[in-house]
Amino acid sequence: MVPRIRAEHDLSPMELSSLEDRLNRDNRRMIDRDDDRGLTFVVRDGAGHAVGVAAGYSWAGMSELTLMWIDEAHRGRGYARQLLDAFIAEAADRGVRKIWVSSHDFQAPGLYEKAGFERMAEFSGWPEGHSNIILCKTIAADGASQATLSSNGFSAG
Question: What pLDDT was estimated at residue 141?
């Protein structure tokens, strides 16, 4: 049977995840590194509901922060910076030397810059009328930029 292309805009999250796993398996094989791991910290309220998250992964000496979010009712309390510091510290503990993040101009590029991230690229018109900013933080071999988990109230476990 000949493969065919068709639109499937409602592909299930399970099938999409399975395809992403196959891509990741190919990537690991291509560079002979299989040290990829999820990296996530969550802020929960008194009822146990997630009200903030910093999530991403580490792999091959680098890390990407793919999701940073704080519930609107909990903003302005320093949770974003605490999550970011915890993410950076855990990445450094894993031997990561570069952490990448993408932030739209209306999100939090200033948060990342205050934490030592540098703008590497800016794409205007993504979305229309705005820009998408790619930032990177380099961690020294001695972990010089590493934050301490104990100082921000998060635990690695």
Answer: 76
DSSP string, 112-129: HHHTT-EEEEEEETSSTT
Residues, the chain: 157
Higher pLDDT, 61 or 151: 61
Structure tokens at 131: 């820009």
- Sorted by sequence, the CB contacts under 8 Å of residue 59 that are 6+ apart come out as 33, 35, 36, 37
pLDDT at 123: 98
Q: Is 80 in contact with 71 (CB distance < 8 Å)?
A: no
Taken in order 19, 23, 29, 32, the sign of the CA dihedral is negative
Report which residue type is found at 89: A
Pairing outcome for strands 50-59 and 37-44: antiparallel
Q: Mean pLDDT in the chain?
A: 91
